[in-house]
Amino acid sequence: MSQANPSVGQWALWRDRLLKLQSDKPHLVLLGLMLFLAFLAMDPATWFVLTISGMAMGTMLFLMASGMTLTFGLMSVLNLAHGAFISLGAFVGAVMLTGALGVYTVSPSLGWNLLAILPALFAAMAVAGVVGWLFEVIVIKPVYGDHLKQILVTVGGSIVLIQLIEVTWGANEIPVPRPGALRGAFVIEDWVPLIGGLVMEKFRMVALILGLTVYGLMLWVIDRTRLGILVRAGVENREMVEIQGYRIGLLFLGVFIAGSALAGLGGAMWGMYREIITAHMGEELMISVIVIIILGGLGSIRGCFYGALLVGLINLYIGYIEPRLAAVATVGLMVGVLMWRPQGLIPVIKV
Amino acid sequence: MSEPILTLTGVHADIDQYHILHGIELQVPRGELTVLLGRNGAGKSTTLRTIMGLTKVPRGSVTFNGKDITSWSTSRIARAGIAFVPENMGIFGQLTVRENLVLAGTHGPLDQARLDWLFDLFPPLKKFWDRPAGNLSGGQKQMLAIARAMVEPRDLLLVDEPTKGLAPAIIDDLATAFEELKAREVSILLVEQNFSFSRRLGQTVAVMNDGQVVHSGTMAELAQDSALQQDLLGLGLGAHQ
Q1: DSSP B151
Q2: Other CB atoms within 10 A of residue B173 CB
Q3: What value does the mean pLDDT take over residues A133-159?
Q4: What is the CATH number of domain A30-340?
Q5: Could you read off the pLDDT of B88-99 as tens digits, one per residue?
Q6: Which of A237, A246, A247 minimises the CB distance to B90?
């Protein structure tokens, strides 16, 4: 009798709306909830800085994870060597920045700095892409369709790649200088009247803008182009794509190369962000990458993006609130989400 | 009679450890609709998948348009001009109706005149043009599946049980669509269990049992001979009408 008592009717309406929202847009509900809870737990200026930083971290993680989710979605290939491509990108980027482009990075001019960063990032993508190509043809192709062999072979391949990086650039940590104009932070005093100022690291802003740009570009390709339709179709039903006359192997090779290049890009960005790189950094990041692609729903680009944002944010929030819990926060997030939605946030429906 | 468009000679095929096809002999005449009949498990679907290169052929040969395609990859067979509508229809549910059709047109942009013809045959496709194909009903999905195979001219159309699970009215619509295709002299190989649908459309017929073709001839001959029907298909009087 909802008519008899309007307040009960209202309540039921809102409850239904909420239930619908959590089943239709679980990623937004979770993101909103996380932002809100964090807002309650800290002062607004800190919250703002951590949120922007977390999103910057998230977009970098997204770059690294997107390739892996697509290769899994398209060919159900588990590439545990993905981390090695992250390291490779970081080293190529760093070598370019300290070597060939060193002159431009030391310059305090923002224009020259960006002019140096862009070729460094492109180089990281190109090298990771080419190595990815060889890796697919030599290592992955023979083990299509067999997960156990994929795990064995790609872990082995990962060790080889990391050792090759150590042979080439040495086993020690390498410092990566940030370009002159991107060191330090923006300081805005009195950001919020009576509450306080704001300190925002410059490089994080660059990372965020670049990450969002790449995400936008990827969405455009996936949603609007014929290639994107083909990739989405392949993720859903590989056999049917072949039945229509497309060479799925070629498509997958292309996606694998692009995924490796993106891992390289993410690695190069991460190197500049952390200002120090090791050959093993990619392996360490793989935990987050795997959590992200599971969180988002295997094979889903949008899911991967929101998964990455959530992982980036929870890392920084928990790191600020209770640093000792930071290590378990990411995995805790995954466990929580999987209990709620075992298929991930934005799952891809397979046939 | 001209050269058949498709010839299977002594084709064997296995799925895992099971030997499914035991030397299929089948000819599909050019420009006609051939129906492949048989009980469940007779190997009809496997025959289509084998033609399409989805099941390996250890012995025997498949010849299409005079070329031996036995060892070709699926995508190469498709590009040679064979369209295949599998039993589960293979619709991309997360893609829109438009995207499903765009993908099926492998030679670039879709031809508007042909698209209009498809819309006439299957009006729901126009109505749900920009909706995810996964939201379509079973009959509409089947329409999309067939439209997808026809969006560009193909030499041979393989269709696996299009009437399965559909309401009689929709089966009628499909029959109309197949008649249109017959009028355009598209060669079709249709797997069916629905005998009245097959009788209405088929010109030639092949009956399979236990991985072999046990009878082939014209549909007119089979339609008149109820003893033969009883023998081959186990159709009792009045069944499948």
Answers
A1: S
A2: 18
A3: 92
A4: 1.10.3470
A5: 899 999 899 999
A6: A237
